[in-house]
Amino acid sequence: MPLTVADGSIDPVSLKQVPEKFIIFYSSVVDGKLWCPDCVVVDGLVQRTFGKPDGPSALVVYVGDRSQWKSSTNIYRGAPWNINSVPTIVRVEDGVEVGRLVDSEIFSGLEEFTR
User: For the segment 41-55, what is each residue's pLDDT rounded down to a tens digit?
Assistant: First the structure.
């Protein structure tokens, strides 16, 4: 199933009710590319995993440009997501977070995490 990109105006609480089973928190695209080097590094794996027709469903949420992300008031840093680092991939079942992979955990654990 192709990756879906969240509308920038979506409320963080509303993300709990999206149909996708995985939410990928990424840095925003600035000047045509993700500004976060760690997001760039995992993007190929993410695209191969979630972008294929029979892949798991995933929603990409851009957390903002560097200054927006670094702000302690960034809407994704607080409840319900408490994202402290990008990239972060959260697995959601029936509106409840059941697991997450952060940064380098994505390389070693994504295949098993998405089964």
Answer: 999 999 999 998 889
Average pLDDT over residues 68-83: 96
Nearest residue to 60 (alpha-carbon basis) of 42, 74, 72: 42
Run of H or E including 56: none
Are the C-beta atoms of 47 and 87 separated by less than 8 Å? Answer: no
- The DSSP secondary-structure symbol of 83 reads -
Under DSSP, the state recorded for 57 is P
- Can you list the positions of beta strands (E) in the chain? 4-5, 22-26, 29-30, 33-34, 58-62, 88-93, 96-102
Beta bridge partners of 74: none
Q: What is the pTM of this model?
A: 0.95
| Helix ranges (DSSP H) in 3-113 | 37-50, 66-70, 105-113
Say what the pLDDT of residue 7 is.
86
Tell me the sheet residues that pair with 96.
93
Looking at the DSSP bridge assignments, the partners of residue 81 are none
